[in-house]
Every structure is written in structure tokens, then in C-alpha cells.
Amino acid sequence: MQTISATNYSIFFNEKSYEFLAEVLVPNRYSKVFILVDENTATHCLPTFLANLATEVTIEIIELEAGESQKNIETCLQLWHSLTELGGDRKSILINLGGGVISDIGGFVACTFKRGIDFINVPTTLLAMVDASIGGKNGVDLGNLKNQIGIIREPKAVLVLPEFLATLPSNEMRSGLAEMLKHGLIYDKEYWNQFKNLSDLNTEDLNILIHQSIQIKNNIVSEDLTENGIRKSLNFGHTLGHAIESYFLESDSKTPLLHGEAIAIGMILESYISKEKKLLTNEEYHEIKYIIKDIFETVNFSQTDIKNCIDLLIFDKKNEFGKVQFALLDGIGAIKINQECDNDLIYNAFEDYQS
């Protein structure tokens, strides 16, 4: 697959990823290579990665427990201490080998250690490949509130190795698929149409779709790195999706949802709101609803659940001047940003989602 050029870095695929590493990880450029993994990627991905990594620079491995619960400032403190104790300096480089949590927290730690060291993202989940590793957003959660603390700074490179997808359970693959569906809905109707017959896709088809999805996100980010305009379109499904994800994460009575599972719900809800605001036809809305529901199981919400999710909207990082901001569909393949919505319409969206 062809290398994609981002604003200040490149996204390499397959064998070109290891060729890039061999060229860049040399002693006169970097003093030490740190590789951040979680317990899953340490087992399933790290051996293959190290076997293909050709460098004379000293390598140190830092391992975290897996899961969203690790994406906090306390974990950052542990990582800063580990980097210091293992001899990290300003000429060190951090390679983030893992899913979205590893990409987000690893990038944030690299951006803040010694006032900033280089980092490379090597996403090992579908979600991280098409979303978390691309675009320079790095950060952590504040309690159960998603991505409240962070910085935008692009990596040295992103290396996409689809072979790692073979290590994923099916629910993790579906989670990443949600972001790919989003890219079609907000940017490219023809790309969206390719997901109507998922059962017909083979591995090569999936690799092509991954490349296209990354290209779509990169096109958007390249126009608006700091999210003052068109990059807000990537928030479609995330205003309500993040609130749902946060609520299920903090509630003792709920089973936490994967990011993509929550965003899938958010996309249906926000498509309903788009329809009610006359931005989306009834036919388009039902197409979106049924295609997403065919992939993701319906989650039940009580009235209390809905109220608690709505209460969390005020903490959404996209809000401006105390107003909750939505990115809504303006037909399939287009978007309108900075849209407001009253709570009654949100309640109606939840009701329709469950019907």
C-alpha cells in the first residue's frame, strides 16, 4: 500500500514500516529506543515487531496493564518515572505499540517528557489504525471523562501493520469498524456504500478500506490540525458516544462499552437528530440505522440512563461558551459542524434507537 504523507510526518504500511525504522533508528540520531506496550501487545505483537526491528540503539520495553482505566495522569506519572529510571533523555524516542489507549497516553507522555521527545505510533487494533494513531491528538481521561487532558502534536511517523489484526477478538474489530463507517458518513458516500455488504469482503478488501479510511482522516486533519473548523466533523457520533462511553465506564451496574460500540450508538442518535433537523432524509436515516444495527447489538437505556448520559454532555471537550456542540450529517457524505440540540430531541433519539 502506498505511503500517505501527512502534514509533518508519513504513514507507512507493511514492509515500508520496518524500512523506515532501519533508516531512522540510528545511534547518531537517538540515544535510546523505548517501546510502550500493554499486556496484550507484549504477548501477541511485540515478538514479531522486535524480530523485524533492525537497530543498534539500546531498546527498553515498558509494559502497562490493558484497558481504558489506565488512561489517566497517574499512569503518566509511572511512565515518566520509568523513562527517567531507564536513562531516557531528550534524544530518546518512544514507540507506542498498541491500541488507542497506548497511542493516546504514549503520545502524551512523549510530548511532555523532557519538554518533548520524538514518538512513533504503531497501532495494533483497527480502531487505532484508522483513528487514534492519526492526527496528533494525545491525551488522557480525567476520571471517567474522556480525553479532557491532552495536547496536539504529531508523531515522527505512523506504521500500519495489518498483520496484527489477526490477534484481535471480533468485538475489537467491530469497534474499529465504527470509525471507518463514520469516515464514509461524513466525507465520502461511495466509501460508505462499500460497507453495505460486509460479508463479501476479503482480507485484501479490508486492507484497501483501511488505507482509504486513513486517507480520509488525514485529508481532514491536514486542513485543520487544531480543530477550529472542518476537523470538528470527525466528532460525528462522539458527542453522545463519549457521554455513553463515560457513563458505562463509571456505572457499577453497567458493563463498559468499547469505544467503537459507544460511537456506533452515538452515530445512530446523531443521525436521528440530523433527520429531525431536516439535514438527512428519512430514507438515509433508516439506511444508517439498520446498517449499523446489523453490525452492533442494540443496548438498552432506561430513562435514568439517558438522563445521566445527557448530564455528561456539558463536560464534552468540544463545547464552546457553555453550549453543547454537535457535528451533524448534511446528507450521507457531508457534515454540518457547530450544531445545537435540545434535550427533548435527544430523548426522542434514544427512544427511536431502541425501537
UniProtKB/TrEMBL annotation:
EC number of this enzyme: 4.2.3.4
GO terms assigned for molecular function: 3-dehydroquinate synthase activity; metal ion binding; nucleotide binding
Cofactor(s) the protein requires to work: Zn(2+); Co(2+); NAD(+)
Coiled-coil region(s): none
Annotated Pfam families: DHQ_synthase, DHQS_C
One GO cellular component, as annotated: cytoplasm
Keywords carried by this UniProt record: Cobalt, Lyase, Metal-binding, NAD, Nucleotide-binding, Zinc
Enzyme class, broadest EC rank: lyase
UniProt keyword Ligase present: no
Domain of life: Bacteria
Residues in 3-dehydroquinate synthase N-terminal domain copies: 62-174
GO biological process: aromatic amino acid family biosynthetic process; chorismate biosynthetic process
UniProt xrefs under Gene3D superfamilies: 3.40.50.1970, Dehydroquinate synthase-like - alpha domain (1.20.1090.10)
PANTHER family: 3-DEHYDROQUINATE SYNTHASE
Protein purpose: Catalyzes the conversion of 3-deoxy-D-arabino-heptulosonate 7-phosphate (DAHP) to dehydroquinate (DHQ).
Protein name per its UniProtKB record: 3-dehydroquinate synthase
Organism, as annotated: Flavobacterium tibetense
Gene name linked to the record: aroB
